[in-house]
Amino acid sequence: MTDTAAPHLQELSDAQIERYARHLVLPQIDEDGQLTLLNSRVAVVGGGGLGCAVVQSLAAAGLGHITVFDPDVVELSNLQRQVLHTTADIGQPKVASIRAAVAALNPDVTLEARQIAVTAEAARAQLAGFDVIVDGCDNAPTRLAVADAAEALRLPLVTGAIFQCEGQMTTLKPYEPGMPRLLDFFPDLASPRPGQSCAEVGVFAPLCPLLGAWMASEVIKERLSLAQSPGLARGEGLARSEGLARSESLARSEGLARSEGQGLTGRLLMLDLMAARVRVFALEPTAKTLPSQPL
């Protein structure tokens, strides 16, 4: 990783207090949390649909240093779902397009553009020195290389994938006792099937920004120690177990008490936009894998 570290920020400027005002009044973030975000370093592997959405949300939130790895250039067919690229960017490196978009969005954020692929041979060196790694790539070899490197480096890995109108994501920390690896969730990645690329099967445009924003949320929760992992019963619905329970709790609350976060370590979130359904699955202790889902 190129050493472009900025001085450690210890207090917010007047402009930053105004920019992040809606964060500062959240008891889950406040000024200390915002400073943590501004001093954080995140690697995003992939500058496509998920990568663009993750970077957009993190940059707006004030994640201070983001490095994006992607060897590709912007194509016209990307613009249907890759929200940081524009028509004027066609033919330009994706990482350059993303860097320009982030510069326009938030000058507090340093975007390091790496127009290279993350490879199995170099992944550990490429991904060292970050606080969290995000995997938004579109091929099995890179996913496995990133997952192996994150485990070796003992770094949280927020990984997501899309397929037509469905998306899925999890946070991997296999260096912690009892926590699963990527292949525990998706054993088929070891022998990927042909004919599963976005170009061949299609992608519903709203899926990428929705899932990418959710991935960015998990990154922020990891950095602010808001991602507790108590686990869910396998197949328990998110709306009932988390959404409604949280709404009812807030409705009963007389103040703005700091609520405990719940992360996705050891759990798989699945989003189906056509069915308007979100489900969260926990990896069963007695069964080492879940049924594989299309990536």
Counted beta strands: 8
Class of the domain at 40-176 and 196-227 in CATH?
Alpha Beta
CATH topology of the domain at 40-176 and 196-227: Rossmann fold
Most strands sheet: 8 strands, mixed
CATH architecture of the domain at 40-176 and 196-227: 3-Layer(aba) Sandwich
Order of helices and strands: HHHEHEHEHEHEEHHHHEE
Unreliable residue runs: 230-257, 285-295
| Beta-strand percentage range | 15-25%
Residues in helices, as a percent range: 25-40%
Question: End-to-end distance, in Å?
Answer: 28 Å
Reading side by side through the largest sheet, how are the strands ordered?
A: 3-2-1-4-5-6-7-8
Average pLDDT rating: 85
What does the radius of gyration come to? 19 Å
What is the structural class?
alpha/beta
Determine the number of helices (DSSP H or I, runs of at least 4 residues): 11
* Global morphology: globular
Index terms:
alpha/beta; 295 residues; eight-stranded mixed sheet; Rossmann fold; globular; disordered C terminus
Question: What's the helix and strand layout?
Answer:
Elements: H1 14-19, H2 21-24, H3 30-38, E1 41-45, H4 49-61, E2 65-69, H5 94-105, E3 110-114, H6 123-127, E4 132-135, H7 140-153, E5 157-163, E6 166-172, H8 182-185, H9 198-201, H10 207-223, H11 238-252, E7 267-272, E8 277-282
Parallel strand pairs: 1-2, 1-4, 2-3, 4-5
Antiparallel strand pairs: 5-6, 6-7, 7-8
Helix pairs in contact: 4-5, 4-10
